[in-house]
Specification:
six-stranded mixed β-sheet, Nuclear Transport Factor 2, Chain: A, about 40% strand, alpha+beta, disordered N terminus, 2 domains, single chain, about 300 residues
Length: about 300
């Protein structure tokens, strides 16, 4: 009888241990993916917009963060970004806000996220736009925004609604960049002056994505070629052109460049100038050349 009692006790103990191990295994948390993190951050951004609370997202920025938006000059650092969002939040309430990530590129030290957003304000105005964010790891398992850039899918009737001059508390001076990147920037300037669609489209990879000012996202070199055919069909002369770089990151297969431009142009009977900011990811191809793989362009309102 004692032998049976010992046997039963042993089996019971073994089952209890196995159940404990199974429970322990089942409670092990799954690794947090970049996609999971971005989804959570986007929900925070939505909540901040709908509740007019920058505090919800303030930890996503630091002193190195850059903000580029249509109609605004470059906004530098978390303190200036706070001024921007506090001012925007005070102007109008957002009734509906949706964001959708379309593309994510991961590097060891940076993450590029591209997506679309829609906002509906309490006055019923609906605004649709696109964004390109560059994230960096903060060393504690979280991400921070190295740069946030967003624009709209069409021209805004009243750009002043989106302009926050008080957020321009500091400015960055242009910096020198690696010689090969400078050479490709010079080639880009030459292409803008020449206004030949095929030359400009050849600056991009076959599967590039470009987020142009006041337009939809353009994907693929063939689509970009048609885009530039339409863009260059108007008779315009580039009288002067300056391209600036404010910062750049080196990634495994190329560079991420944060910059701006200033151009004087003229058409028959009229002349003017345009200025803006933008982010471009230059990817090294199999032939070792650099091509633009992801890019957003934004214009400043004057």
């Amino acid at each position: 009888m004692k032998r049976y009692i010992v046997l039963i006790f042993g089996i019971t103990t073994l089952i209890a241990c196995e159940n404990k191990e199974n429970k322990k295994t089942s409670t092990i948390e799954k690794p947090v993916t970049v996609e999971n993190m971005l989804a959570r951050y986007n929900q925070m951004i939505i909540k901040a917009g709908k509740t007019n609370s920058f505090e919800i997202i303030q930890d996503l920025y630091d002193s190195e963060s850059l903000l580029m938006t249509d109609y605004n000059p470059l906004i530098v650092s978390d303190t200036s970004i706070k001024i921007y969002y506090d001012t925007i939040f005070d102007r109008r309430n957002i009734k509906e806000y949706n964001r959708k990530t379309l593309d994510v590129l991961e590097f060891s030290n940076r993450i590029i996220e591209i997506g679309l957003f829609t906002k509906v304000f309490e006055d019923a105005e609906k605004v649709e736009g696109k964004y390109l964010n560059v994230w960096k790891h903060d060393g504690e398992g979280k991400l921070k925004l190295r740069a946030e850039a967003f624009g709209y899918l069409k021209r805004m009737d009243d750009p002043d609604k989106f302009l926050v001059p008080e957020a321009i508390t500091t400015s960055l001076d242009p910096i020198k960049i690696p010689r090969e990147l400078a050479a490709y920037s010079a080639l880009g300037k030459s292409n803008v002056r020449a206004r030949i669609p095929e030359r400009t489209a050849d600056s991009y990879t076959d599967d590039a994505m470009y987020l142009p000012f006041s337009d939809t996202i353009k994907s693929g070199k063939s689509v970009l070629l048609e885009h530039y055919k339409g863009y260059y069909k108007y008779p315009a002369t580039i009288d002067s052109l300056e391209v600036m770089t404010y910062a750049y990151d080196i990634v495994e297969d190329g560079y991420i460049k944060y910059g701006g431009f200033y151009v004087d142009w003229s058409v028959p009977g009229y002349s003017g100038n345009s200025t803006g900011t933008g982010i471009s990811y230059w990817r090294r191809e199999k032939d070792h050349s650099l091509r633009i793989h992801r890019q957003i362009g934004l214009h400043i309102h004057k």
